[in-house]
Write a structure and sequence with these properties.
Blueprint: H1 2-13, H2 17-27, H3 33-47, H4 54-78, H5 80-85, H6 101-122, H7 125-146, H8 153-173, H9 178-201, H10 203-209, H11 214-239, H12 250-272, H13 277-302, H14 304-325
Helix pairs in contact: 3-4, 3-8, 3-9, 3-13, 4-6, 4-7, 4-8, 6-7, 7-8, 8-9, 9-11, 9-13, 11-12, 12-13
């Protein structure tokens, strides 16, 4: 009955073509996509030693955008009952009646096909298959199997958000190696503290619709403890790109160490006050900035000019030390 009412409302609620475009744009949850693309870009720059082909960059980021948009649209279709029940999401295109589910499904399929075709023809088949695997994992494993059935949903489901890093590396090299998998692992381990901080803020919404997010099932104390543990695992992991892998250098290492120390400080503060929603909000917002700046650090560190500068500084430091020793 609800579905019939939603479908009947579409023509009434859209007054012009621009509003239709805007509704389909909203289906893709565009605020999420830039964070996925920055990890893709980081993988590309690291894989190419800072010499990314502009056309390949454009193709890969466009393909990644289309794949992410397809996945988010499918998620909006699957979760339309939850979105309708929660005040925060009730005004999204499908529960508000501005887009029919069947139309959204067609839109998602077209986006996915465009993504695969673009990546397969202009990058390589591996990057295209990885992008498609991200859609499948996000929908089948996270949204269908995990989200509504286990408090560990975001832990396992975080792999979907980490796949873009592999797509970026594969687009450049046509293969996957240890640095690519480590970048994947960093994003994977970052996802639980990032998402649980948000879940702490909107715990009541999840409880209302019966989604077993960790704060709902285990409470704030257990959730903040898990955030703390994952943070302590994640920060040292980011430094493994410097040593032993040697995929990034000292500039990235300094950036990662500074960002990691701030993340640890915020996670510790939340651990001391598990019910403080302002601290949860602060950690959530910083976690977004953290990942964006960490990936930016990878890009900056990979640039040839950065290599030249660090080599120049290292040479002069060594000369100074030698002079002092004598």
């Amino acid at each position: 009955m609800q579905e019939m009412m939603v479908g009947a409302d579409v023509s009434r609620k859209h007054q012009n073509f621009l509003q239709v475009i805007h509704s389909y744009y909203q289906l893709t949850k565009p605020r999420i996509i830039p964070l996925l693309l920055i990890t893709t870009a980081a993988g590309m720059w690291m894989a190419s030693d800072g010499r990314v082909d502009p056309f390949l960059l454009l193709v890969t980021l466009t393909g990644g955008t289309l794949a992410a948009a397809s996945a988010q649209t499918l998620n909006c279709i699957y979760d339309r009952d939850i979105d309708y029940a929660m005040e925060r999401t009730r005004r999204r295109p499908i529960p508000s009646g501005r887009v029919q589910s069947s139309h959204a499904l067609l839109f998602a399929i077209v986006l996915g096909c465009l993504s695969f075709t673009l990546l397969a023809l202009c990058a390589n088949l591996l990057s295209a298959l990885l992008a498609m695997s991200g859609i499948v994992f996000y929908m089948l494993i996270y949204t269908h199997l995990l989200k509504r059935h286990t408090a560990q949903n975001i832990v396992i489901g975080g792999a979907a958000g980490a796949i873009p890093a592999l797509v970026g590396w594969a687009a450049v090299t046509g293969s996957l190696s240890w640095p690519a998998w480590l970048l994947f692992a960093i994003v994977f381990v970052w996802t639980p503290p990032h998402f649980w901080a948000l879940a702490l803020m909107i715990r009541d919404d999840y409880a209302k619709v019966g989604i077993p997010m960790l704060p709902v099932v285990a409470g704030e104390v257990a959730t903040t403890r898990q955030i703390w543990i994952y943070t302590l695992i994640m920060v040292p992991m980011t430094l493994l790109l410097v040593y032993p892998l040697g995929a990034s250098g000292v500039v990235y290492g300094i950036i990662a160490a500074i960002l990691g120390s701030v993340f640890i400080k915020k996670a510790w503060a939340l651990l001391q006050e598990p019910e403080n929603k302002q601290l949860a909000r602060s950690l959530f917002k910083f976690s977004i900035l953290y990942m964006m700046l960490l990936c930016t650090g990878i890009v900056i560190d990979s640039l040839p000019k950065t290599h030249q500068l660090t080599a120049f500084v290292a040479e002069h430091i060594q000369t100074l030390i030698s002079a002092i020793a004598f």
